[in-house]
Amino acid sequence: MYKVLLVDDENLLLDSLEIILSLNGMEIAGKANDGNAALQLLSSPEVKCDIALVDLNMKGMGGIELIRIMKEKYPEIRILVLTTFYDDKNITEAIAGGADGYLLKDSGKDAILGAVNQIMGGTTVLDQKVMLRLTALMNQNLSAGKPEEKGSAAKEFTEELTEREQEICTLMVEGLTNRQIADRLYISEGTVKNYISNIYDKTGIHDRVKLIVELKG
């Protein structure tokens, strides 16, 4: 049973998340309306937390600062950003600060539950819109480099991968989800997951975002 800390300044959302998570076998470790209140809860020896669902834009201490402090003081706690914002600044600062996932609030119940389980299983989870934005940012960064340098690092990085694994890497860089990759290649989603697992083993990177960054070279 995962113990979840909820951090958001919308009490209605906090109550809704509490109901959804509780009905799906999770325990609510606490609820807070901003970063300061969340840190106060975590400082209590009675509060045990596995994962925190954190909004970014809150009165008082916002989510970006909270993520940074939590990762310093409580590195064992996973963090899932749950917000309405997916602009470049928020995405990059949240991920750089150590967020383990980034979902938009309109993702739906199943996506939120799935994200919690995936993150607790060691997988980074990004909303499709966030992944597309992140990919665009990396493309912008690449376009600023020297033409002869583009793609060279990525080519060397994927030398040990099979043709199919390289194809899947390409689709991951495009921002496709496992389901979309499966549909594109006419294979099952389980097969895609197996390929990605092999890619992780061969590259030594077991994080989707970090892998994509490396593939971008």
Strand order of the largest sheet: 2-1-3-4-5-6
What does the largest sheet look like? 6 strands, parallel
The pLDDT mean sits at: 86
Distance between the ends? 39 Å
Question: In which range does the helix fraction lie?
Answer: 40-55%
Number of helices: 11
Low-confidence stretches: 146-153
Rg on CA atoms, Å: 18 Å
How many beta-strand runs?
6
Tell me what portion of residues adopts beta-strand conformation.
Answer: 5-15%
Kindly summarize this structure in a few lines:
By secondary structure, the protein is an alpha/beta fold.
Description:
The protein is an alpha/beta fold. It is built from 11 helices and 6 strands. It has helices at residues 11-22, 35-42, 63-73, 88-97, 109-120, 128-143, 152-157, 163-173, 178-185, 189-203, 208-216; strands at 3-7, 27-32, 51-54, 78-83, 101-104, 125-126. The chain has a 6-stranded parallel β-sheet, with helices on both faces. Helix 4 links the parallel strand 4 and strand 5. Helix 2 runs parallel beside helix 3 (63-73) and helix 3 (63-73) runs parallel beside helix 4 (88-97). The longest helix is centred in the middle third of the chain and has 16 residues, at 128-143. The N and C termini lie far apart (39 Å). Residues 146-153 have low confidence and may be disordered.
